[in-house]
């Protein structure tokens, strides 16, 4: 009897080892997790214009020559789109310039988010001051003012025939990384 049982056990083992299978129960179900989507960050600069406080209408800065006591203002709209449940972004200047004509003219850059009703500094000297924006669409007015009223006593002729390049000045929109206080937290596990 023992020999027969042993032989039967070996036979079953050989059968399974030779490619046989045992039926097992299983089940599957789709997660139904839906579709995830990413947001968007976009900035478009409108056409800028130069104007003088001494004349009406825009000026052609390429051929215009400033004189002491004058202010030139470059105005430009920035269309900003921020899409995302947790998105915020900083708008800041790049390569800001603080002085012109051998330091005889001051340059300031400012932003307005309320159609020019009020203005906030975009830079302190050449150091950018970021403007934080939240999700949504924004029209940010930017302006750069060149104030040629800073003549140094006894140095009135030093600023004659000077040029200051402003073509490198620009704007950068950069997303802020969400912090732990603003990031979505995973739900706590449910007790069995």
Helix percent band: under 10%
Biggest sheet layout: 8 strands, antiparallel
DSSP summary: helix tally: 1
Radius of gyration: 34 Å
User: Average pLDDT value?
Assistant: 86
Q: What order do the helices and strands follow?
A: HEEEEEEEEEEEEE
N-to-C span:
49 Å
Rough shape? elongated
Describe this structure in words.
With 192 residues, the protein is mainly β. The chain has one helix and 13 strands. The chain has one helix at residues 2-17; strands at residues 40-45, 49-52, 58-59, 70-83, 88-94, 99-100, 105-112, 120-121, 123-124, 127-128, 131-134, 136-148, 170-175. Strands 1, 2, 3, 4, 6, 7, 8 and 12 form an eight-stranded antiparallel sheet that branches. A three-stranded antiparallel sheet has the order 11-5-13, with no helix packed on it. A two-stranded antiparallel ribbon has the order 9-10. A hairpin with a 4-residue loop joins strand 6 (99-100) and strand 7. The longest helix is centred in the N-terminal third of the chain and has 16 residues, at 2-17. The mean pLDDT is 86.
Topology diagram in text:
Blueprint (H helix, E strand, L loop, with lengths): L1 H16 L22 E6 L3 E4 L5 E2 L10 E14 L4 E7 L4 E2 L4 E8 L7 E2 L1 E2 L2 E2 L2 E4 L1 E13 L21 E6 L17
Give a brief description:
This protein has 192 residues and is mainly beta.
Defining traits:
38% strand; mainly beta; eight-stranded antiparallel β-sheet; 192 residues
């Amino acid at each position: 009897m023992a020999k027969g049982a042993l032989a039967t056990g070996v036979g079953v083992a050989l059968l399974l080892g030779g490619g046989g299978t045992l039926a097992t129960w299983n089940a599957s179900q789709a997660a139904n997790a839906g579709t995830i989507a990413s947001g968007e960050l976009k900035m478009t600069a409108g056409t800028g214009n130069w104007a003088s406080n001494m004349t009406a209408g825009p000026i052609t800065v390429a051929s215009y020559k400033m004189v002491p006591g004058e202010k030139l203002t470059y105005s430009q709209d920035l269309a900003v789109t921020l899409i995302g449940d947790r998105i915020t972004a900083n708008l800041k200047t790049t390569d800001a310039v603080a002085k012109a004509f051998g330091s005889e003219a001051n340059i300031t850059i400012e932003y307005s988010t309320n159609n020019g009703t009020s203005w906030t500094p975009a830079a302190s000297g050449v150091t950018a001051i970021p403007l934080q924006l939240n999700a949504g669409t924004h029209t940010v007015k930017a302006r750069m003012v060149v104030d040629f009223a800073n003549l140094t006593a006894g140095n009135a002729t030093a600023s004659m025939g000077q040029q200051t390049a402003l073509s490198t000045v620009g704007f950068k929109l950069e997303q802020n990384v969400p912090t732990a206080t603003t990031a979505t937290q995973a739900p706590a596990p449910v007790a069995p």
